[in-house]
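Morning!

This is the sequence you dropped in the shared folder:
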Amino acid sequence: MVDADTRDRLFKLRELINYHRHLYHVEDREEISEQALDSLKKELADIETRYPMLVTEDSPSQRVAGKVADGFSKVTHKVSQWSFGDAFSAEDMYEFDVRVKRMLKQAGSTTVPTYSTELKIDGLKVILEYKAGILVQAATRGDGKVGEDVTSNVRTIESVPLKLTKPVDIIVEGEIYISKVQFDKINKIQKKSEQPEYANPRNLAAGTLRQLDPAVVAKRKLSVFIYDIAQGGDAQTQIAELEELNTLGFKVNRGYAHFDKMDDVLAYWQKWQKKKDDEDYWIDGVVVKVNEVELQEVLGYTGKAPRFAIALKFPAEQVTTVVEDIVLQVGRTGVLTPVAHLRPVLVAGSVVSRATLHNEDEIRRLGIRVGDTVILQKSGDIIPDIIEVLTDLRPKDSRLYKWPTKVTACGGGGCIERIEGQAAWRCVSKDSFYQLVRKIEYFTSKKCFDIDGCGPKVVEQLVKADLVQSFDDIFTLQKGDLLELEGFAELSAVNLLKAIVDAQEVTLARLLTSLSIPQVGEETAIDLAHSFSTLQELQAASTEDLEQIDGIGEVVAESIVNYFADTQNKEMLKRLLTHISIFKSQTIKSQQSDTLLQGKSVVVTGTLERMSREGAKQLIRDNGGKVASSVSSKTSMVLAGANAGSKLDKARDLGVKVVNEQEFVKMLGNE
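The structure's back. Tokens below.
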């Protein structure tokens, strides 16, 4: 016999546990700690153990109550399950809009459709059935008509209510997914136990849902967003359906919106392309639906998909293409970079026909051949990477790439050498045409002297015509020189000469960056400019002086000393300084302090929305921090924008602090 107090305590515990479960797993907030909630669950379990006659299917204790299954039984869906058609561009969506309106007009409808937009979560579909508000069945999509009964496993998912707020009969559809945080945790466990890491969160979620032991599923901590009422609702619009689902206690993604025009739908799509990486789940596009249910019914379905809805995918960040050739590119310091010439392909919103292969060792690691089909990835970096060769598609006539012994573009007989202790090769001669062109290009680029109108094509013309053979020659150009070149008219010549005059004042850091000193990039140049007040002081510095600067070691110090000791470099700088003046840079400080990031190493990766990457780097420097190009255990923080890629992954693996753009700006007090 159960006394009244115990029964009352049990009912109150269930109600309170369900309340806090909903807060934590559906609304993403909490009023008590997870440990406190676990304590309440333990008390409930203790009562139900003593009084098993009180256990009901909707009790919170029954989320992991199933036994290990022998397999999954088949479920015939009461409502047919469809897949969405795909769209990949604005043009596709305008065609969809025209098609919808044409079909409605042909059906005699005079109502102008509006559109709902929802985030397309990268997970797997689940169909939930409730009787009188109690979960009775959960099934996978299967072939659209028959799925698998995964009720025991779905009951373990905390964001799935076992009991709704109203006693309704209803069938709903949603997307099961695994969060980024949980995905990373599982992979760390895999790595620690020397097991293969999971590469795909969707496949991990699908594999987890098909585990025969519900206890294993519970440990994986899957989640779900519910997005549609398949049967039992009476909402007149898709937006109203989402609001009704929320009222019933389901977890609904709050990123949905409602628009009258297709232009606004596309603006929403473009906004989420930039924002998607800020969420703790993977988003691979936007689902667009005719909002009015009455019009949805008029439009109906094709044999495969609803005519009233479409999935607008984000630009692919991984695609396949074919390697048509591998060529060596000579850089400004003579380093040779192998570049794959690709069959042009659209990736991350732009057509790509080149990919760097980095060095000889990378070619060997990939085992890449001309003619191979490869997987191309574009993340935060401008230049895409080849990450895998699909050897199953290798043609019989494919050929190995043989690293050459000589490279004509190097000049001086074309001799090349491998840099000691590195994977890179370089030209032995330091004065080839291609190296000179690259050096002048870099000298005139935005991060150096920023001479507008002096791009790669113009630089190549100037060098070919022997008008520019050294940095200082840029500042001796006359209008008559330029008018002799193809493509130059009076106005373009005057504009370039004005840009050259405007560039004659430069900071020491920019000057040092522009000189193409081996081992000295933008960040090292900034460190040098902070440590030496004049170029003359730096020229007089010894290797010991330079090694006192944080981040400059023996190799970099020797390279700097050797550069300034070279007679040709001395003469060139003497001539250059007759044309330019060096001034101290005035940086903009944060509102709080210039030492907020003092001594901290920060990596910037991905696409930022509110500022450029260069602007972010300058803010880091202004606040005492040091900008690093790669993530290591010594990295203090990573500022990650959209499409952050491998640097973000490495930061998570190493436990390095990661902040988004909003958090970064707030940290510096610049909001």
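Headline: Confidence is low (pLDDT under 50) at residues 586-593.

More detail when I'm at my desk.
O.
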